[in-house]
């Protein structure tokens, strides 16, 4: 039964991840807006008599998810929306298969045999454990995915131009060391714990409430309703951590130069100081736009896969 849970969760996660990949790519591009120092422009004071110039930091204009998507298509074509999809597949295979399978194992062991339900706090605990372990396993693919998705926003001369997730991991290992594959791992683990706890626990809790109160029968309508609500909860809880994780993973560390961020806290402080607190919710619209459909596809597919494999 334990292996079955891993297989079911893995299949559903890969389908959901690949089908919503363009939305995830747009989210990453939006989260990186305002990070570059390219917004610093030399300006000459109006009443200056000397030939020197003064550099004034101008805030970059905010761009919405539709505009970001259109710009990607205009610059690099429709295929660019699927940049890094190979990394997404590997990430879902490693990370989501692990977290979904472990959660299912704990759910079976900790469910009350009399009521058939598991207390909410126990669900949250199971989600925290499963998410943390899954993230540690899948972090290399997560770093590769973020970099491949973000590559298109850089000037052509600065792009990494990874050919695939295998090439990305290989180049990072050679040029930055094996530890670079776990860059931002503390953030990844924290985010994954929050995502899994809020997503899986809220889905099960909302689904049980709907069925227990006879609001709807156990079917597609219940699965869609519960999964979309779970996606919204997960988006609100995890977006700030996701922004910091994306920036730490994407930072370019060059030999002889200090890293842009010394760690997660440093990144959070610099982000808030230079862009304001709401910068931590950059990309929230594409996050919920991606997290909602992703969670719906994930759980609807999972329920269908469970039906197909119920006799195995």
> How far apart, in Å, are the first and last alpha carbons?
9 Å
- Low-pLDDT stretches are 37-54
Roughly how much helix do the residues carry, as a percent range?
Answer: 55-70%
Rg for CA atoms: 21 Å
Number of strands: 2
The secondary-structure element order is: HHEEHHHHHHHH
User: What is the spatial order of strands in the main beta sheet?
Assistant: 1-2
Q: What's the story with the biggest beta sheet? A: 2 strands, antiparallel
What characteristic shape results from the CA principal axes? globular
Number of distinct helices: 10
pLDDT averaged residue by residue:
85
Q: Based on helices, strands and strand pairing, what is the structural class?
A: mainly alpha
Indicate the proportion of strand residues.
under 5%
């Amino acid at each position: 039964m334990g292996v079955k849970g891993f297989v079911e969760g893995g299949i559903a996660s890969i389908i959901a991840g690949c089908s919503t990949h363009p939305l995830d790519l747009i989210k990453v591009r939006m989260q990186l807006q305002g990070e570059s120092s390219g917004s610093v422009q030399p300006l000459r004071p109006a009443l200056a008599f000397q030939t020197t110039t003064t550099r004034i930091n101008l805030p970059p204009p905010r761009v919405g998810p539709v505009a970001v998507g259109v710009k990607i298509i205009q610059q690099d074509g429709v295929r660019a929306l699927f940049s890094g999809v190979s990394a997404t597949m590997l990430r879902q295979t490693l990370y989501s298969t692990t977290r979904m399978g472990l959660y299912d194992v704990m759910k079976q062991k900790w469910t009350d045999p009399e009521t058939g339900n598991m207390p909410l706090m126990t669900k949250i605990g199971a989600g925290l454990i499963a998410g943390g372990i899954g993230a540690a396993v899948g972090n290399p693919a997560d770093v590769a995915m973020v970099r491949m998705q973000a590559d298109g926003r850089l000037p052509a001369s600065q792009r990494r131009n990874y050919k695939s997730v295998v090439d990305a991991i290989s180049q990072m290992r050679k040029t930055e060391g094996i530890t670079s594959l776990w860059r931002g791992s503390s953030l990844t683990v924290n985010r994954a714990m929050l995502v899994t706890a809020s997503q899986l626990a809220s889905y099960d809790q909302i689904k049980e409430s709907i069925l227990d109160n006879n609001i709807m029968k156990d079917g597609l309508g219940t699965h869609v309703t519960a999964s979309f609500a779970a996606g919204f909860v997960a988006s609100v809880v995890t977006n700030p951590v996701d922004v910091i994780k994306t920036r730490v993973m994407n930072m370019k560390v060059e030999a002889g130069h200090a890293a842009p961020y010394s760690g997660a806290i440093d990144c959070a402080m610099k982000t808030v100081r230079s862009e304001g607190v709401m910068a931590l919710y950059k990309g929230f619209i594409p996050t919920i736009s991606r997290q909602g459909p992703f969670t719906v596809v994930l759980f609807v597919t999972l329920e269908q896969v469970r039906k197909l494999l119920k006799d195995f």
